Amino acid sequence: MKKSLQEIALYLGGSVAGDGEILIGGLATLDDAGEGQLTFLANPKYAAKVATTRASAVLLPQGANAHGHNAIFHANPYLAFAKLLTLFYTAPAAPLGVMPGAFVAEGVRMGADVSVYPGVSIGSGAVLGDRVTLHPGVVIYPGAVLGDDVTLYSNVSIRERCRIGNRVIIHDGTVIGSDGFGYAPDGKSWYKIPQIGIVVVEDDVEIGSNSVVDRAALEVTRIGRGTKIDNLVQIAHNCVIGEDCMIVSQVGISGSTQLGSHVIMGGQVGVAGHIKIGDNVMVAAKSGVAASLAANQTVGGIPAIPHREWLKTSMTIPKLPEFRKTVSSLEKRVAELEKLVQSLGK
Amino acid sequence: MKKSLQEIALYLGGSVAGDGEILIGGLATLDDAGEGQLTFLANPKYAAKVATTRASAVLLPQGANAHGHNAIFHANPYLAFAKLLTLFYTAPAAPLGVMPGAFVAEGVRMGADVSVYPGVSIGSGAVLGDRVTLHPGVVIYPGAVLGDDVTLYSNVSIRERCRIGNRVIIHDGTVIGSDGFGYAPDGKSWYKIPQIGIVVVEDDVEIGSNSVVDRAALEVTRIGRGTKIDNLVQIAHNCVIGEDCMIVSQVGISGSTQLGSHVIMGGQVGVAGHIKIGDNVMVAAKSGVAASLAANQTVGGIPAIPHREWLKTSMTIPKLPEFRKTVSSLEKRVAELEKLVQSLGK
Amino acid sequence: MKKSLQEIALYLGGSVAGDGEILIGGLATLDDAGEGQLTFLANPKYAAKVATTRASAVLLPQGANAHGHNAIFHANPYLAFAKLLTLFYTAPAAPLGVMPGAFVAEGVRMGADVSVYPGVSIGSGAVLGDRVTLHPGVVIYPGAVLGDDVTLYSNVSIRERCRIGNRVIIHDGTVIGSDGFGYAPDGKSWYKIPQIGIVVVEDDVEIGSNSVVDRAALEVTRIGRGTKIDNLVQIAHNCVIGEDCMIVSQVGISGSTQLGSHVIMGGQVGVAGHIKIGDNVMVAAKSGVAASLAANQTVGGIPAIPHREWLKTSMTIPKLPEFRKTVSSLEKRVAELEKLVQSLGK
């Protein structure tokens, strides 16, 4: 596919500087782009690279220096470049139907234009919407329901009766709806509490590879519309995650915890069970959240405290040994002073 | 299935208050239960909800206020409710045999009443007990041995010669017996140490989704009877985990470490290699255990210390910056005093 | 297989003490070895066990006490024992070809002597080298390229166009090349940035189970030659990992970070994005690396600092509450002194 710079600017809602007639056939980074390619500057840190790029055109923030290149100026070049990547590189594949080697139980309902690869298993009573793509090794347990335009990559499992919304993408190996970790002590061992609830994954959610969302004990574990979850994340049973959250790799959220909307959690964060995290809360990577958090704040540390305090605290921690010496020497000096003052007072 | 309140009380060993003849057809939470359903109160925090529940009956601790509801009083309503969930919702499925699309190598021995779904692979010389259920995509490598009543969910892998006990449940994507992480430096690179040992998972163990238990270098990595392991947990080679332990999500236990029985580890705990953790030790979430721990204690922090000390310490950490100012001001005041006292002494 | 002690010594480049003619048929630990088996001492901590082992021969460091056993002395008994394990226990299996129940799309090129198990899916345009083994449930997406002597265990996924070098081993459930976690905020929700780059895994890399290496946004996520990665590790998009690194279980490395060669990371380490870690850096388990690190140092803590300082600091942290009392009492004593000195000065 080739498009003129002018066409691209129109598509993005940006303005052209230089030759709008040149044809663009692909996209690349400032370092790698060459003849016929368009590149972009989003991070001002790399502005100097614009001068030396060999790209045919550059997508720039308003008012940036084009260094003589053909350019499109745009209010949000990062988002605009993402939209161009979609335009140039993500043509929808033709539907393949149910391919030989896929196993479909009785009583499965399927929409139009699905692609079901070899090695997929679909259990009885499952429902697939239109344009669903199931890569090899996907397992849809009985009674699970998938909306339209769902893409499940290889070896994803959707357990019994779980519900997946429209336009959901789940990457390889992720498990939706395995049993929550619930046991009652019977005085000697652990008695398994049957997990009879489900998981609901709402529209436009994307989940990375090898993550796990457990089914609720009795009701619903919910992932809200538009939320993005990275690889190797654990969402325990009965959690309710709000809309448009961003949960980075290796985060673990304990059972029955509720997140508001637009919550952002850095990598390896751990969150205790049965607490509430308000809207727009941001949690720094590797933090441990032990108690509920009101909306609109940034926190960090184990246990998590307001992020500014955590930054100050974490810079102080390494000074502790030196600091300890200071206090130790202060103790001696004060004891000495006390003696002196006592003798003076006599 | 419907049962009278009186029948249920008899089954559980509890006592009825109100109408023992009413029929119960299902279970739900205090908030969600309605006509014909039984609910329960386990956590006194929610006692007020008993007054307003629309359930037909409530399972209550001895002496609790039934607020005029039909009720069963029981010494352990949490455990009792779990037993009712099992009774009402976990009827054993009829065995399906080896279904078309399952791959069974030569020399596999199988017990009675197995269910082997499409897409399962069973390697030569493997042994399956009675009533084993293997969901789609399960891979049993050559020589692996499974006991009776084992359920392996989709895409679980049991590597070569590993042994799985009776009534073991393993959720989707978990790997038992991949190679331990062992290399010998050869002066330049890493020489792989073949991992020729196995994993033994004893009776009544349950393991969550996408966890990994590595095979021993030479001998046995062992998961003791009744132990419950959550999702995304790492158990390294040569570990020996005792009985009835509870290991929460994203815990990592390094090689050759031994856990006693009834050890409980919160989420994201890390444990060093080659150490011993005594019986009944509890480790708070996100802690790092760097050294052996005697039995019967609760620890927390990185590195882990007795939990009470850790609580005090962790509350002190955020005061460090303020604390530092105090010490700095003390230093000035002491220096000032020293000058004054010196001049007074003259 | 049986070999004389003398033959084994020749193979390893070591020297025999005692009877070189005895035949060795297997290897075991000091505790477990018996008649006809050879054992080894690598860790001097276990030297006393040499006296009591029932092995027919012992592999020992130069100058160690053989306690009357037949022995081979070797400069590096740990490495030598690993080589014997390879010799005795890792005979290459006869190639099985493409077995029934494997799905191979059109236009796939395969080398000689491959073993492709049932339930494997290979997409169009993929390339397999010689002696490649794909265990059940492996998914090779279209256009992926595998070198010679590659072994992929069950349910490994190699996503579109990714490239795997020679002699690479990847354990069960690991995903290479799923989409990087990249979104552009569009003012309300998150707009997915198509991830059009690939992953390159160089020669002699080994990766454990259920790990994830994400494909680059535009270019290449690279795992350098000889690097070993454990289970449940996250390598985010655009990372470049050097050669012969060792990355222990549950480590997470954020996007666009670069590691030099021979970097060693302990379990559960987290590394921030867009930073550089120099050659030979070692990071203690559970640390958080927030900023770039120069080569040839050992660090620890959250955030990571030089390891010696971290050890001192981490030992001081638990003293904080006591320490706080000391400072509080110092404040009182200094205030008292100030009053006294003031009154003396009058």
List keywords for this structure.
18% helix, 12-stranded mixed β-sheet, 40 strands, UDP N-Acetylglucosamine Acyltransferase, domain 1, alpha/beta, 346 residues, 10-stranded parallel β-sheet
Explain what this protein looks like in three dimensions.
The structure is a homotrimer of 346-residue chains. By secondary structure, chain A is an alpha/beta fold. Chain A has three domains: 3-89, MurE/MurF, N-terminal domain (Udp-n-acetylmuramoylalanyl-d-glutamate--2,6- Diaminopimelate Ligase, Chain: A, domain 1); 97-309, Hexapeptide repeat proteins (UDP N-Acetylglucosamine Acyltransferase, domain 1, 3 Solenoid), CATH 2.160.10.10; 316-346. In chain A, the strands form seven sheets. A twelve-stranded mixed sheet of chain A has the order 8-11-14-17-20-25-28-31-34-37-39-40, with helices on one face. In chain A, strand 5 (37-40), helix 2 (48-52) and strand 6 form a beta-alpha-beta unit. The first copy, chain A, is flat, with a radius of gyration of 28 Å. Chain A starts with a strand and ends with a helix. Chains A and C meet through helix 3 and helix 5 of A and strand 22, strand 23, helix 4 and helix 5 of C.
